[in-house]
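Please decode residue identities from the backbone states below.
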């Protein structure tokens, strides 16, 4: 005899490939033709695809669903990921510059996750913060197109910073996959 469960049934919006998030014609990450030319363009495209994936995983959810925590005692939520990545984008600018560090957006320790509460104003602010911080970090890095250039107090290579950005988004997109499935059962890469 089956058990009753509050867990949502797994589903996908895709009809062409059932393991995908969306059909190719509806997926902004699905491009025709050859890939980008050169290492920097490739890194930028991968980063943008992961950023898009995160936004896609959050689409169509209300404030309560975005703020829903995964598995206790974890504080992770989709809203927390948006806030965390805004904080991380700001921190990466600290790596690029050699001046005084920019202040934290949300406070110390896990404030980015702890403050991810089911309030539409918090959701709107998280999206605005993320967009602003991404644009600011992109603009700061655009001043350093040589991937071998070393920047900031720690003299980190631009290439290393770009790869680290991709890694951070990729890791959190994996979290977003699981978080979204817990919220409403939707699956797909």
């Amino acid at each position: 005899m089956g058990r009753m469960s509050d867990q949502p049934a797994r589903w996908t919006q895709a009809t062409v490939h059932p393991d995908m998030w969306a059909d190719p014609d509806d997926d902004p990450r699905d491009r025709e033709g050859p890939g980008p030319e050169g290492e920097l363009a490739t890194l930028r495209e991968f980063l943008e695809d992961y950023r898009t994936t995160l936004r896609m995983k959050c689409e169509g959810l209300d404030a309560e669903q975005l703020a829903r925590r995964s598995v206790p005692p974890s504080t992770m939520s989709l809203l927390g990921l948006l806030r965390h990545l805004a904080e991380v984008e700001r921190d990466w600018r600290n790596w690029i510059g050699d001046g005084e560090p920019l202040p934290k957006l949300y406070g110390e320790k896990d404030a980015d996750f702890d403050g991810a509460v089911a309030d539409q104003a918090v959701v709107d602010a998280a999206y605005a913060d993320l967009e602003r911080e991404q644009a600011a970090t992109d603009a700061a890095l655009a001043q350093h197109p040589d991937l071998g250039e070393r920047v900031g107090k720690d003299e980190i290579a631009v290439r290393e910073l770009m790869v680290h950005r991709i890694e951070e988004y990729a890791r959190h997109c994996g979290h977003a996959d699981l978080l979204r499935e817990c919220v409403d059962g939707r699956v797909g890469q």
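Observation: Helices lie at 39-58, 63-67, 78-96, 111-114, 120-142, 158-184.
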